Amino acid sequence: MLCRNAIILGGAVSLFFSPARVHADSREATLFQGTTGNVIYVLGNDHNLWREEGDYTRRTLVDASVVRFQVINDNLIYVLGDNGNLWREDGVYTKRTQVDASVLQFQGMDANIVYVLGSNGNLWRENGDYTNRSQVDASVVDFQAIDNQTVYVEGSNLNLWREVGDYTNRTQVDGNVASFFPIDSTTVYVRGTDGNLWRESGNYQNRSQVDGSVALFQPLNDSLLYVVGDNRNLWREVGNSTNRNQVDASVADFQAMDGTVVYVLGSNGKLWRENGSYTNRAFVDENVLGYPAPPPAPQQYNWCIILTSQTNGIVHRQTVVTTGNSKPDYAGYDLLQEWNDDGLGLPADSYVVNSGACPGL
After folding, report:
1. Considering the domain 7-285 in this protein, what is its CATH number?
2. Is the peptide bond before 292 cis (omega within 30 degrees of 0)?
3. How far apart are CA 324 and CA 301, in angstroms?
4. Alpha-carbon span 304 to 114, nearest angstrom
5. Which backbone phi and psi does 317 adopt, to 5 degrees?
6. Strand 113-118's sheet: what is its strand order?
7. Hey, where are the domains in the chain?
8. What is the chain's pLDDT, residue by residue, as a tens digit (361 residues)?
């Protein structure tokens, strides 16, 4: 799911000048992020990060070997490389400073403050870089900061906490949490491990159900939200599932810009900008990281090959066991030179078996 910039303004959402994410689960990589106008940042299957104006025909390279990113504005982008190094970039990789290393997740708040989750599960609040930081919590699997002090933290035991400063000042919000999205320091959407989505005020003791069988969701405020069900249908809902209209189907990921415009990534790997629904859309890009899914690996077999030859009237056998999806090429085997034929034929007999054992020949 996606990690975006979103701020609620009068019931709509602007996604450029605030550090909040768009989707509820930041444990998966950011794939694309719309900003102002028709500008969108897209992470390709080759891990190149592009800034596109409208679509892929007008784009500039931001960085390469990228696994995660967060755009604060065109001159402030946080980029996580595939080596675990986190950088603060001024629009492009040629102008950057390192923030930290061994990073799993992050959330930049502005040009200085950034929350960093290390690969060891420790969560830090950093000012500038790792040389000036304070620990927030440990054994963290996900988090979402509201501001420079208040942060929602999900522990490895799937308990969700609201923390002010650090774990020494916290209150429990819920348990058995699959993903979450806070609107502010009180209201938070929580998807349980059973797929039920709730709107909670304070904690689970004061909540109302929004939907069920939820895979992805993005609230814009405490009433309007987008929901992808387990069947990959995308809906725009007001209040809960009883008041909704369908936006699209076969959805792999999405980012809503407001109550009308939404970027939709189909399961076929095509990214669209939709106005209202799929009936009014413009093509943006394809080959977005991870989509379409790579084809399954070819079926692998254990080949049991019986090579035969004859020398001075004596028949010789040699058994070769190998693994592959097609019959191996035996050029280069010494026994090949002793075959009765011209040396270009197939082995005298061959078998495909499901284990490393050959037939009893």
Report:
1. 2.130.10.10
2. yes
3. 5
4. 57
5. -120, 145
6. 103-108, 113-118, 123-127, 129-137
7. 7-285, 301-353
8. 343 333 333 333 333 334 545 555 555 667 999 998 899 999 999 999 999 999 999 999 999 999 999 999 889 999 999 999 999 999 999 999 999 999 999 999 999 999 999 999 999 999 999 999 999 999 999 999 999 999 999 999 999 999 999 999 999 999 999 999 999 999 999 999 999 999 999 999 999 999 999 999 999 999 999 999 999 999 999 999 999 999 999 999 999 999 999 999 999 999 999 999 999 999 999 989 888 777 776 666 555 555 555 566 665 555 555 566 665 555 444 433 333 333 334 444 444 444 445 554 4
State whether the Cα torsion 166-185-230-15 is positive or negative: negative
Query: Residue 315: how many CB atoms within 10 A of its CB?
Result: 10
Integer angstrom CA distances of residue 324 from 165, 234, 298, 352: 56, 41, 9, 10
Helix, strand, or coil (residue 337): helix
**42 near 15, Cβ under 8 Å?**
no
Buried b (16+ CB within 10 A) or exposed e, 241-268: beebeebbeebbbbbbbebeebbbbbee
Q: Which residue has the tokens 């989750």?
A: 117
**Ramachandran angles phi, psi of 337, nearest 5°:** -75, -10
Taking the C-alpha atoms of residue 265 and residue 28, their distance in angstroms, rounded to an integer, is: 15
